Fold this protein.
Amino acid sequence: MQGLSSKGSRVEVRVSKQGIIPYLIITFILGALTVLGFAPFYLFPIPVITIALLLHFWRTSTTPLQAALLGFCFGMGMFGAGVTWIYVSLHEFGAVPASIAVLFLIILCAYLSLFITLTGWVLRKLHIEAPLVWALLAASLWALSEWLRSVVIFFGFPWLTVGYSQVPSGPLVGYSAVVGVYGVSLILVLSAALISLFFEKELRSWRNAFFLSMLWITGFGLQFINWTEPQGEPTSVSLLQGNISQEMKWRAEHVSIRWIHMPS
C-alpha cells in the first residue's frame, strides 16, 4: 500500500502489485494472533482487535481482488495456527507421511480461508459508503460465511468460529443463550467493524462509540440471567475412559483385549 488519499468521507488506499505484499504478511500474522482468543489462551479481546484491523484493510482497499487476497492471508494465518492438530492426527497417529500430512493441512487451510476471502470480496464489491450500514453488512457476511463453513462439504468444519473466542469470560458470551454462537460471531464482528471506523478520522463519532458500548454492556448484563432452571432430583453420572495410549488404541491386537476387559 503506497499512499493514502482522502476521497469524500473515507480514505482510499492505493495498492500496487509490490506494495500489497507487506500487508498480506501483516494480515497473515493478524490471523495467527486471532487464535489466542480461543482455548487454552482465552484472550477474548484479541479476535476483536485483529478482525477490526482486517476490516480496516478491507474498507480501505481499492479493489475487491485486493480485499480477497487480504482475507485469504488472514484465513491462512488463523487456520494455519489453529488446526495444526490435524497434522498430528494424520502423521503421529494415522501414520501418514509428514509431507503428505503437511500438504493436506495446507489444502484444508486454503479451502477454509476461501470463506473469509469471499467475505472480503463481496464486502468490497458492494462498496457501501454509509458507515453503520457497512458495519452491519460486514458482520452479517462474516457470520453467514462461518455458518456456511460449518455445513458445506460433508458435516462442515465449524472449528475456530470466532463466537467461541468469547467463552468463558468474554463480555459478549452473554448473547450466546439468546442468539447462539453465530449470533455471537455477528456481534463480535460488528464490534470490530465499529472499532475499525475509528481508524478513519472522518468517521469517528460519539454515536458509534455509544453503539459499541451498548453492545458490550448488554452482553455483560445478559450473563447474570438464569436461562434454565433445574427440575426434579439430580442424577449422578459416571464417565469411564480407558487409559490407553493413542499409539496402541487402534491396533488390531489390542481391540479384542480392550473389549474383553471392559467393565459391565
